[in-house]
Amino acid sequence: MTKTKRLWRALRLAALALVGAAALGAMTPEPAFAQETSAAVETVAADEGTGEVIAVQEAAPEAPALTVDKGDTGWMLVSTVLVLLMIIPGLALFYGGLVRAKNMVSILSQVFVVTGIGMVMWLLVGYSLAFTDGGGLNRFVGGLSKAFLNGVDVTTMVETFSVGIAIPELIFVAFQMTFACITAALVLGGVAERVKFSTVVIFAIIWPVLVYYPMAHMVWWWGGPIMASDPANAEALAAGAGLIWNFGALDFAGGTVVHINSGVAALVGALLLGSRTGYRKEPMPPHNLTFTVIGAGLLWVGWVGFNAGSNLESNAYAALALINTFVAPAGAALSWTLTEWLTKGKPSLLGLASGAVAGLVAVTPAAGFAGPVGALILGLVVGPICLFACSALKSWLKYDDSLDVFGIHGIGGIVGAIGTGIVVNPDFGGAGIVNYVTGAAEYPGIVAQVTKQALGVAVTIGWSAVGSLIVWVIARGLTGGRVSKEVEAEGVDYAEHGEVAYHS
After folding, report:
1. 89-100 burial by CB neighbour count: b if 16+ within 10 A, else e?
2. What is the pLDDT of residues 243-298, one digit of tens each?
3. Could you give the C-alpha distances from 313 to 26, 66, 68, 92, 130, in angstroms and in order?
4. Structure pTM?
5. Which domains does the chain have, with CATH numbers?
6. Strand pairing category for 53-59 and 40-46
């Protein structure tokens, strides 16, 4: 059987599997959370006439009604569009400028197709696997009760982080959809300039199912503030939350879910596919730094929606996330550039752009927890660390992560996730961790919280490494993985797409 036939066979099997999953999901009712139930409570009372003790059925107190706030709804609409801006055209231009001219069409096409596949997959099974109860597997992944958005319509709501406040569920679906898309698209930078388009397609279908959806569930799935506000629900709340959420690890907007996850997946793909022909033997500079800087600027603007939108409400915490999204990348851009200036003799434009992105990555898990000074310090620290990872570390280990996804997103995500455990400290200007029973901001101590953060990082690295290896092996087995040396030398654009980005 030819590789093409194997590819189409795999796609047909995947389609059949999705249809079957959706059918199963439609037959599986969504479990009710504690805050959604109003079960009758049996009490004991005495009959006034006879004194006989009788059982009386009383209705349990109703949970607070959910109220949709139009301001929050409007803010989430804007935030969702901002995150889409990060991908197309932001990330596409950022990556496009970094590759050689002969591969411009290739990387743009890959980012575009991964975004399209990501949206469709999220609608079919992604949202359900990430944000529903998974029964016996709930620690790791959700179920299929909302596959094909079963039960999701204009009347359904999702709680925010304030008791009784909600947004339309369709907005939450769309917002989280963009996160799934950009995470898979980020991975492409690690295998750029030699991976086949067909390999990318297979990766975009399988990787989110095995890696991203479970990771999102493990980090962000929990019972909600109404449930958490009642101390009697403590045991049920713990039992119903994802694995990493249960650790007590904090990830405001996706330091683990998006950045460490994509960075590790990119590294695994780069190692498995091998280096570009001529790597470390001939120069491979970016072909258009103008595009890269424009892309970095669009990423920075869109990241406001990414971070501040993750608050789900338009309030002071969203404002905190916004200012942190300003100062952390500013600090990282300056510290990266200064380090580069001192060690290499010249400050580069690419260093400024790369440093800003590293700062955005680092502040992502801490955006709504750190104070502005803490976010600035986080940015100042991460700049030199990511510069080291993208230069000295990469050179020593001799791997070809084409666009430094692991060096910026993987390492930057690790620094940010661990650092979140420190900058959340109210003594350092952080916002603390909300106790929904008392309403107060709490903090368990640096050692305790950093330990929780490190545990979350370790699970993320392990899950992404193993899952990504499986996906890349499957994708390479079905399609061959990378283009021929001849195609690579000529440029992937015309051989794979019949187009070129520039005409003389």
Report:
1. bbbbbbbbbbbb
2. 999 999 999 999 999 999 999 999 999 999 999 999 999 999 999 999 999 999 99
3. 31, 14, 11, 29, 21
4. 0.88
5. 76-488 (1.10.3430.10)
6. antiparallel
